[in-house]
């Protein structure tokens, strides 16, 4: 995590969620909520300017075979490398005001900021992975992608899994907290709650920052994205240029006795 900002551990946030009855409660026991207006947490610090700090390499992004909106298999590694990627796990139908609606509003704000930085929009990707493949089928995530991709050149991919069983190892690798509803035989049936997180992944597929609810600040995340972009450009500038190949014949010095044929 960036040493320049305060930190709240995942375990602390999880304990608060359990105490509030958000995590671990049966789905039927949760009251209906009014989503209201999704508002980012109050920011009580000034984020450092882009490029004035370095984001640590936390862990490689997990890999797995997921499904795109056409139902075709996609390697997760294919969409978490090559660009700066902001990954979020979500439900298409979530109405929790401090859950997916807040994440969606935050992503829209970040996307707007990215579009104002020259050259950045082509180097950034958003990735949303469904937490509930039982409802978020390829057709369902296809409708969601159509909605989020409107009026923007920024790549926004949406994936789901074949089953909860296929999804759980991915969530475990990322450290994404969820509670799992079990079938009568004890098998995983579906995920019913999750702790909101976003994962910032660099172009090499390395997780560089993890944002929990306390730090879901568009200005902070945008600065971190720009910091990775500047790092990428700096690395490219330092990389040695490939040696220009010269034909072998051109490397042979002409003989002093050489006379052109007349």
In short:
This protein has 262 residues and is an alpha+beta fold. 26% of the residues lie in helices and 19% in strands. β9 (197-201) and β10 form a beta hairpin.
Major β-sheet profile: 6 strands, mixed
Annotated CATH architecture of the domain at 64-238: 3-Layer(aba) Sandwich
User: Helix fraction?
Assistant: 25-40%
Q: Supply the CATH class of the domain at 64-238.
A: Alpha Beta
Low confidence ranges: 1-35
Rg (C-alpha, Å): 24 Å
CATH superfamily of the domain at 64-238: Glutaredoxin
- Count of distinct strands: 10
Throw out a few tags for this protein:
single chain; 262 residues; alpha+beta; Glutaredoxin; six-stranded mixed sheet; two-stranded antiparallel sheet; 5 helices; 10 strands; disordered N terminus
Would you give an account of this structure?
The protein is built from five helices and ten strands; from the N terminus they run αββββαβαβαββββα. With 262 residues, the protein is α+β, with helices and mostly antiparallel strands. The strands form three sheets. It has a six-stranded mixed sheet with strand order 1-10-9-4-5-6. Helix 2 packs across helix 5. The N and C termini lie far apart (75 Å). The relative contact order is 0.19. The N terminus is likely disordered.
């Amino acid at each position: 995590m960036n040493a320049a900002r305060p930190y709240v551990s995942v375990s602390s946030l999880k304990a608060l969620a359990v105490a509030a009855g958000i995590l671990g409660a049966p789905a039927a026991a949760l009251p209906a909520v009014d989503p209201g207006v999704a508002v980012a947490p109050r920011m009580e610090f000034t984020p450092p300017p882009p490029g004035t700090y370095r984001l640590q390499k936390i862990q490689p992004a997990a890999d797995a075979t997921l499904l795109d909106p056409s139902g075709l298999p996609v390697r997760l590694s294919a969409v978490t490398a090559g660009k700066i990627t902001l990954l979020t796990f979500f439900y298409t139908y979530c109405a929790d005001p401090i859950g997916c609606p807040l994440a969606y509003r935050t992503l829209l704000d970040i996307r707007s900021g990215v579009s104002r930085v020259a050259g950045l929009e082509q180097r950034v990707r958003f990735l949303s992975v469904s937490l509930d493949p039982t409802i978020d089928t390829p057709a369902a995530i296809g409708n969601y992608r159509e909605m989020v991709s409107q009026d923007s050149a920024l790549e926004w991919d949406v994936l789901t899994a074949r089953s909860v069983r296929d999804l759980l190892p991915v969530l475990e690798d990322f450290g994404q907290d969820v509670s799992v509803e079990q079938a009568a035989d004890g098998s995983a049936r579906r995920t019913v709650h999750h702790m909101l997180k976003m994962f910032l992944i660099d172009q090499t597929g390395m997780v560089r920052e993890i944002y929990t609810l306390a730090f879901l600040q568009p200005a902070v995340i945008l600065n971190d994205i720009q910091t990775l972009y500047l790092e990428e450009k700096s690395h490219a500038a330092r990389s040695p240029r490939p040696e220009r190949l010269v034909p072998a014949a051109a490397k042979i010095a002409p003989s002093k006795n050489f006379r052109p044929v007349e």
